[in-house]
């Protein structure tokens, strides 16, 4: 019978020390096997697909691969038969099929690998280099002289961005 009830971590660790075939060692072996399988699968894939997919599991002769979104899933489906035959021939002769699933976490973890982020620059990384020229500030101050009180205050604050040469003391002359 399968032992499927929750166990305390302390009990699992004590049992793993006492036994030679402990559950932690089994989990570690499975994780290492999936990691090696992931490396082998990525070696067989085209370079643009590699960062957007990973091997999630191998069970019952079915390889489970996760991809970042539906478009990468479609792209990987085109490569599925080639991948299946290459894996059967070299690594997993008992492989019956490949199951592809979408996991959006892959895209969030590796944003630097997406083709969109390589082409565009994030807006919050660009410093604001815009400045108002003194000529523009002078025009704004002249416009403020004939404006209502609220608009005048806003235009004067905007003109103040040009620097000291257009401050309130200088414009009185």
UniProtKB/TrEMBL annotation:
Name recorded for this polypeptide: DUF721 domain-containing protein
One Pfam family per UniProt: DciA
Record-linked InterPro entries: DciA-like
Species classification: Bacteria, Pseudomonadati, Pseudomonadota, Gammaproteobacteria, Enterobacterales
Source species: Providencia sneebia DSM 19967
